[in-house]
Specification:
By secondary structure, this protein is of the alpha+beta class. The chain is built from 8 helices and 8 strands; from the N terminus they run ββααβαββββααβααα. A 4-stranded antiparallel sheet has the order 2-3-8-4. Strands 1-5 form a two-stranded parallel sheet. Strand 6 and strand 7 form a beta hairpin. The relative contact order is 0.21. The chain binds flavin-adenine dinucleotide. Flavin-adenine dinucleotide binds next to helix 6. Catalyzes the reductive methylation of 2'-deoxyuridine-5'-monophosphate (dUMP) to 2'-deoxythymidine-5'-monophosphate (dTMP) while utilizing 5,10-methylenetetrahydrofolate (mTHF) as the methyl donor, and NADPH and FADH(2) as the reductant. Its EC number is 2.1.1.148. One of its GO terms (molecular function) is thymidylate synthase (FAD) activity.
Amino acid sequence: MTDSPADDLQPGFRSDVTVELVKHTASDADVLFAARVSTVGEQSLDELGKDPERSKGLINYLMRDRHGSPFEHNSMTFFISAPIFVFREFMRHRVGWSYNEESGRYRELQPVFYVPGESRKLVQQGRPGKYVFVEGTPEQQKLVNHTMEQSYLQAYEAYQEMLAAGVAREVARAVLPVGLFSSMYATCNARSLMHFLGLRTQHELAKVPSFPQREIEMVGEKMEAEWAALMPLTYAAFNANGRVAP
Ligand SMILES: Cc1cc2nc3c(=O)[nH]c(=O)nc-3n(C[C@H](O)[C@H](O)[C@H](O)COP(=O)(O)OP(=O)(O)OC[C@H]3O[C@@H](n4cnc5c(N)ncnc54)[C@H](O)[C@@H]3O)c2cc1C
């Protein structure tokens, strides 16, 4: 499998997603100064380095009692490459998120397509609202890979044919599938990210379980790892309080 198209627009097939933290101003101190304005006003900035145990306790208290706004005074910008069907789900998250995505009107879309990796469970069992995913057979895996790749190639060829005939990109793109990779910048704060993670990841510590599609969860897991390193106290409090956004 190739990761990206060659210069001559050879199709690429990918089973992973990319998440890169490109910009941030986010630390546990951002939560503390915002929260302490309640009690010490503008002196809250002077208190930041004092008494780490109290700081940890304060963050945990804010999380537990769902005092959410102190978790908004920070910012993280991610560059994400994922299939369009992931972005459709992603952009349902409206509050505390800003998005900019590559345009299918202004640029020719590159032939990079999603195929499930070997660890992706292929078969759904059970009734709606109460189902599990189980491994596919080797035959199913082969069928999925082959069918998807053929279908992608056919769609991309049709796209190219229309572009070559002078049809506008915004018209020709209609034939491209949701398995096509796209890219976007997504900016959020810790509070909106926690809400996203509560819904789009599965975790043993989650008080309220969610059942996200695996591919958006793969994006969520990578964002979570970046955020955990930036705001360790906030991250620990999120987990300790059942992964419910405050
Ligand atoms: C497992 C799963 C399955 C899903 N399946 C479907 C599906 O089949 N079809 C579908 O259409 N969507 C589906 N969704 C999307 C889901 O309905 C939400 O749109 C998405 O999870 C974003 O959540 P949100 O609205 O809480 O987030 P945000 O838009 O970020 O909003 C954050 C919070 O702000 C408040 N808020 C935002 N807007 C309003 C408003 N207009 N009025 C009142 N309060 C508001 C709410 O408290 C909300 O929780 C699914 C989501 C998940 C996680």
